[in-house]
Amino acid sequence: MRWLLALVEVGAAIVHPTGDVALARFGVSELRSVPVIVFAPLNAGRAHRAAELAISLRLRGADAVYAQVAEEFDGVLITWDTEMLQRTASTVPAMTPSEWMASQT
Predict the structure, then answer these.
(1) What crossing angle do the helices spanning 61-72 and 44-57 adopt, rounded to 10°?
(2) pTM of whole model > 0.85?
(3) In the 8-state DSSP scheme, what is residue 92?
(4) What is the β-pairing status of strands 77-78 and 94-95?
(5) Which of 55, 79, 56 minimizes the C-alpha distance to 66?
(6) Which residues contact 92 (CB under 8 A, 6 or more apart)?
(7) Do 77 and 70 contact (CB within 8 A), yes or no?
């Protein structure tokens, strides 16, 4: 079983402002096909660390889970959320999708 909250959030983030169901489905499909993305089960250990990050960095619940996974896997947190970029900077590398794409070339 894989933790797929990211898929839910991407679909919602696209369809909510645009109303474009097809675009939201496409976005979810594209995310699922990226081979470098790790989907990690949300187990008790991860949940406890995410709770600590939520408290210490004043993050929303799902945002803290993303930060925890990035921290655990020595990954980069990719987000358009300015608040999340600022609050996680002391814990994990974070950048916008545009910045990440530019860094891959």
Answers:
(1) 110
(2) no
(3) S
(4) parallel
(5) 79
(6) 67, 70, 71, 75, 76, 77
(7) yes
